[in-house]
Design goal:
The structure holds two protein chains of two kinds.
Chain A lengths: L1 H17 L1 H38 L2 E5 L5 H13 L4 E7 L1 H11 L4 H6 L8 E6 L5 H12 L4 E5 L2 H43 L1 H9 L4 H39 L16 H27 L4
Antiparallel strand pairs in A: 1-3, 1-4, 2-3
Chain B lengths: L1 E9 L5 E10 L4 E5 L6 H8 L7 E6 L2 E2 L8 H5 L2 E5 L10 H10 L5 H14 L15 H13 L5 E5 L7 H16 L3 E6 L2 H7 L2 E6 L2 E6 L6
Parallel strand pairs in B: 3-8, 3-9, 6-7, 7-8
Antiparallel strand pairs in B: 1-2, 1-4, 4-5, 9-10
The chains are: A alpha+beta, B alpha/beta.
Chain lengths: 300, 225
């Protein structure tokens, strides 16, 4: 058993040495494609982070008319409480609270600020929806509350959420497609490398078959070789991803605090998880490429 | 040890390599397959180790019809059959010892067995002391001896030799034949395809003659005609 294992590893590394150029090419291709996969996963996670920040803080704001009555407010509050499948929580911002907000938001525009007084300022209900990223649902809820008694206007951050979703969909799909093509290229290159390795050792394989080596015994070094191409490619891609993420994290720290980019920094260990995924995909891609080649071209 | 029953093998509708061939080879026998190029000698040898399958007939080796042998069992069959070729088929990047050891390594023989058996067989074929030589440092005869050592190191029941002296000068060829005769005397059955009239006439072993795939002569202690 030990002699077989020793033989398999020796033959695998001999083959690496003999086909050095092709081996390096297939490892680099695997690394680039896996890095593409990793970056796609990281960017998706970044967009998810960005959306979840909105999800935690987005507010549907129901502005009430200044002359709203207590009965009308009670009806709105009953509706907010009664729709807890859509509304997670809500707070009421009375006249004093609204005036304080006016002072904060319009601090740079004193003329406009002074036009809004305790007599004409709308009070507000700030509601946190349960599904803040579902724009269609939010719009339905907003429309429903707009028709409530004493309601002046209902607003929510529709544009921002739509933009993030569009960006996520745009980049996610294209990066995913690109990664898929690169991964296919990596599999084909690994397949071709193994095919070349088999061809360069056709005499050896012929002798092995004639002296009674089993097909599996002949195949395993080639399959191991392809597997290693994928795993080494995955390892290099992991190093690349780590470097990229570190650079990105350092870079974003220099951005203005409210730029929104902070949410795109992946620091929760997800990057390590992606590295493991890249290694696994690399191993699978290598095994598929070499497995097909070793099965198809062993009749030499 | 070997029995062919009405074996027919063709490569196309026009080319019939072997037609309705039947013969028996007893254990320990030495048989020459003779005939011109394209007469079916190599095809017969290839069917004996299941590199080829006949369209019709049965090929019995060591008591088993190998025509329908499942693919997974073929390696086991081949461990009982050694093969010697005209072009030696040595691995050029391996030395003499490694070439012979390779045949044991790939069927999982332990290292200590390899260390014991390879020098013994190299001694038998007259290559003791040349273990470290590379194939390109050997003469044609020595390379063929390495090939024979590799074929014999697993002590097969049968040796199939396809024109083993075809690339050698007469004197070297005779040396190889003496070696094969010695191996035959250990009880190993040998089937050898050859064109070499002189060798066949000198050895006076059983001769099966083929002509365009048909056995035209099967003669004990025969000569090349």
């Amino acid at each position: 058993m030990l002699s077989r294992v020793r033989y398999i590893f020796r033959e695998t590394f001999d083959s690496f040495r003999r086909n050095a150029t092709l081996t390096v090419a297939s490892i680099i291709t695997a690394a680039i494609s896996l890095l593409g996969v990793g970056l796609t996963l990281l960017s998706q996670e970044g967009f998810d982070n960005l959306l979840s920040k909105w999800e935690g803080g987005v507010e549907m704001i129901i502005f009430m008319r200044p002359d709203v009555t207590a009965d009308q407010r009670a009806l709105i509050e009953a509706n907010l409480d009664g729709n807890n499948q859509f509304i997670e929580s809500w707070t009421y911002c009375d006249v004093d609270c609204s005036l304080a907000e006016r002072d904060r938001v319009l601090a740079a525009e004193p003329g406009t600020r002074d036009l809004i007084t305790a007599d004409n300022i709308p009070t507000q209900y700030k509601a946190v929806p349960t599904e803040a990223t579902d724009v269609a649902l939010l719009r339905q809820v907003t429309d429903a509350f707009s028709e409530g008694p004493g309601v002046f206007e209902v607003v929510f951050a529709e544009d921002q959420i739509s933009l993030i979703e569009q960006l996520q969909s745009f980049f996610g799909f294209r990066l995913f497609l690109l990664s898929g093509f690169l991964l296919l290229a990596a599999i084909l290159l690994i397949w071709n490398t193994i095919r070349t390795a088999i061809f360069s050792r056709r005499r050896e394989i012929e002798v092995m078959k004639l002296v009674g080596a089993t097909d599996w015994f002949i195949r395993v070094p080639f399959m191991l070789e392809g597997l290693l191409h994928g795993v080494i490619g995955g390892g290099l891609a992991s190093v690349g991803l780590f470097a990229w993420n570190s650079q990105w994290t350092d870079g974003v720290q220099g951005f203005p605090p409210n730029s929104g980019f902070a949410a795109l920094v992946i620091t929760n260990g997800y990057d390590k998880f992606v590295m493991l995924i890249m290694l696994a995909i690399g191993a699978i891609a290598g095994a598929i490429g070499s497995g097909i080649a070793a099965s198809k071209f062993l009749d030499v | 040890m070997i029995r062919l029953e009405n074996v027919t093998k063709s490569y196309s509708t026009e080319v019939v390599a072997v037609k309705d061939a039947s013969f028996d080879v007893a254990k320990g026998e030495f048989v020459f397959l003779v005939g011109p190029s394209g007469s079916g000698k190599s095809t017969l040898l290839r069917m004996l180790n299941r590199q080829d399958r006949p369209e019709r007939g049965a090929v019995w080796v060591a008591g088993r019809n190998i025509v329908d042998l499942p693919g997974g069992r073929i390696p086991m069959l081949r461990r009982n059959i050694g093969n010697i070729f005209q072009d030696y088929k040595l691995l050029l990047e391996k030395n003499v010892f490694e070439n012979v050891a390779f045949a044991q390594e790939v069927i999982g023989r332990p290292k200590h067995v390899i260390k014991q058996q390879v020098p013994a067989v190299l001694d038998l074929v007259g290559l003791a002391g040349k273990e470290e030589r590379m194939p390109n440092q050997l003469s044609g005869g020595e390379q063929q001896r390495v090939s024979i050592a590799r074929a014999f190191v697993n002590r097969p029941l049968i040796l199939l030799a396809d024109e083993p002296t075809g690339n050698l000068d007469p004197a070297t060829g005779e040396g190889i034949m003496r070696l094969l005769d010695r191996i035959n005397k250990t009880g190993t059955t040998i089937v050898m395809a050859t064109h070499d009239q002189r060798i066949v006439n000198t050895m006076r072993k059983r001769v099966i003659q083929l002509d365009r795939g048909i056995i035209v002569r099967d003669q004990a202690r025969g000569v090349y005609e």
